[in-house]
Amino acid sequence: MADSELIVRARDRGDSAALEELLRRHRDTAYRVALRICLDPSEAEDIAQEGLVRAWRSLGRFRGEAAFTTWLYRIVTNVALKRAARRREYAVAEPPEPPGPDLDPASRVEQRERLAVAGAALAQLSAEQRACWVLREVEGLTYDELAAVLGVTVPAVKGRLFRARTELTAALARYDAEPQPSPPPAARRGGA
């Protein structure tokens, strides 16, 4: 069943099973976005949960002008940014286990080091820059979608991305690591 049908059933008919399915379907997305913004798995769980609760409570105000995921990104991002403003700084999470269990030990160590450096570089960005960068480079949102999610103009999005990329490049250079190029626009959802 499509998100739009689940929304109609949950919002207009009070179908709790439809609401449960809608939130279950997007729980991992909410967590992934929260984790990439706050860099702390425990905090990301709390942020994702709070974001989903807010989405549930606000579902009656969802107008369908954007995709449900875009609307949810905005809610989760707002929760993460508000918490960041209260805390001012997030700790760098332990880097995830590198993919590929068949990698030799030296490659696994090298991969783990790269992940730690990338995590440390991301942690140096402001929460707003990190959110903008994550939603664009990892989640693949277009500039227009980013502007809607963050509640700013497209030029403001481009400025934040420019500053984030500049700071990441400088941070990675300080750690003596080469920055990875962004995927080509054709590889991103929606281009732009």
Describe this structure in words.
The protein starts with a helix and ends in an 18-residue tail after the last helix. The chain has two domains: 1-94, RNA polymerase sigma factor, region 2, helix turn helix motif (Rna Polymerase Sigma Factor, Chain: A), CATH 1.10.1740; 102-192, Arc Repressor Mutant, subunit A (Orthogonal Bundle). The chain is an all-alpha fold and 192 residues long. Helix 1 (3-13) packs across helix 2 and helix 3 (41-58) packs across helix 4 (68-87). It is globular. It is 69% helix and 0% strand.
Q: What would the keywords be for this entry?
A:
192 residues, mainly alpha, Rna Polymerase Sigma Factor, Chain: A, Arc Repressor Mutant, subunit A, 8 helices, 0% strand, globular
Give a brief rundown of this model.
This protein is an all-alpha fold and 192 residues long.
Helix content: 55-70%
* Mean pLDDT over the residues: 81
What is the CATH domain class of the largest domain?
Mainly Alpha
CATH fold topology of the largest domain: Rna Polymerase Sigma Factor, Chain: A
Identify the CATH homologous superfamily of the largest domain.
RNA polymerase sigma factor, region 2, helix turn helix motif
Shape label: globular
How many structural domains in the coordinates? 2
Proportion of residues in β-strands: under 5%
Q: How many alpha or pi helices? A: 8
Classification by helices and strands: mainly alpha
End-to-end C-alpha gap: 29 Å
How many distinct beta strands? 0
CATH architecture of the largest domain: Orthogonal Bundle
Largest sheet: none
Order of helices and strands: HHHHHHHH
Low-confidence stretches: 89-98
Our Rg estimate from Cα atoms comes to 18 Å
